[in-house]
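# nightly structure sweep
# worker-07 picked up a monomer target from the shared queue
# config: single-sequence mode, recycle default, output format = structure tokens
# input follows
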Amino acid sequence: MASSARQQLREFFRGIGLRQVRLACGTILFAYLVSHFLNHALGNISLDALAWGVNWHTAFWQFRPVAFIFYGACLVHSGLGIWALYQRRQFGWKAIEPLQLLLGLSIPFLIIAHIVGVRLGQTLYGHEKLYPQELYIFFIGARQRLLPMLAVLVIAWVHGCIGLYFWLRMRRFFKRAAPFLLAAAVLIPTLALLGVYQGGRTVIADSTDPAWRHDNLSAQHVGTLEQADMLDRITSGMTIGYVGLLVLVLLARGGRAILERRGGMISLSYGNGRIVRVPKGLSVLEASLRHNVPHASVCGGRARCSTCRIRIIGDCSMLPEPSPREAFVLSRVGSTDPSIRLACQLKPTTDLSFFQLFTPHTMSATAHASNPTRIGQERYLVSLFVDIRGSTQLAETRLPFDTVFIVNRFLSAVSQAVIESGGQPNQFVGDGMLALFGLASSRQQACLQALRAAAQIGKNIDELNQFLSHDLPEPIRFGIGIHGGEVIVGDIGYRDHMVFTALGDAVNVAARLQDMTKTLGCEAIFSEEVRITAGLTADALPEQEVAIRGRNEPMTVRTVDDTRTLSALVNGDQVVAA
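# output follows
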């Protein structure tokens, strides 16, 4: 158990890359932004509501441990944005990605004056600038600062929403949650901006009262002219420093391009006669995009999927070693072949020949589809593989048309059971079939549906055997494998020959379990994952540990000698609450 836990911990850290760090920091900043916007929205009620909200807001975000995490996230996220500007060589993947980067880099430039005026003013001089003081400055004292501040609110919100979209768009719940997320994305900033406007109107009206000005615009609150001059100089220095840093990054990009060209060019051969020449240091995916070569990449080159995989032709010994992130993704798809690499991560230094493993017409980084499921979506599904036994002997003793007739009747009986149980027949491979459950149901329902389908398959095949008893020397036998897990669903194929299917370890395991029914002499095998998720009691069926090809750890499974017995289990008192 200890070694398994250490292995899982190592796998977890192997899966962490710069993108995961940037995502974690961005989530923290977006949480701060939501809190700040909701505080602004209280301005639609009154200044007292704004004051009440800001007390809770500052109490949480200025709590020492939270403040340490927050400011650390600010620095790391900003630094990774600058690093992305330097590192990214190709900005033509999607128009929204360069836009997100541009918006993110503009935020520090626009927010520096506010940070210096409020936070640094409080630290250096003890200023107490809250909503009355800030709204007075924006609406009366220095109106030229109002538009930049409103602009940064919109820019920061759009930047964060784009990041959340790229993070969540491939999650299985995104399609259902999208309308609610869109409503929140529109309402929250709208209410915040209206709150700022209403608060400003109140401050304009109150500022005509000398008593209000005495209570809210004293030197203790807004500082002296000398202090304001010092803060302005600090603001100017930080702004010049930040702009200078961006200029240095752009100069570094130009210098890198010159050095790369002086360092030589390499040729990339795509295995179909297409050859491109690029400078050393570009990833294979970047080279494809630079030269408009179609290349599959569902996640847009972020090493979140493996659809950009390529197989190297020839010697692989001169290739750079896979990064931890690349090694993690390849291990997730069970690839141990050194000739299989991720195009978005591999940066060759010598001439390279390869071919793509996924059809670029199916899943392209530049593809635009109205339905994200058709491109590729990660979700939990239950896979059921069923295969007829003895089909070879069946074909040897019959005319081809008779064999086709029997196999079609078998597949019709199986498909009818799957559909009646709430599943979807997906792929027909010879005399076998893959069915998917969970496309429109919960995890527990999907597992129960798959088990009910297995029970119904047994009944339907019994009826088929009675119908064909005069023509079959032996009854038709079958094997079923069932397993559930996270998979990628989408369209696979070429041009007009596209099929919707599922890819992933869970599908492969179901196929392995189906094949294992031959050696274990049973009609069906389903994983412990399916039993637990379905809510079956632990003593419902015999338990066994089996070795699955491609997996290091043995898997606990449940064997079913007669699938018809499953009907009583999934419909009776053997199901416990989930």
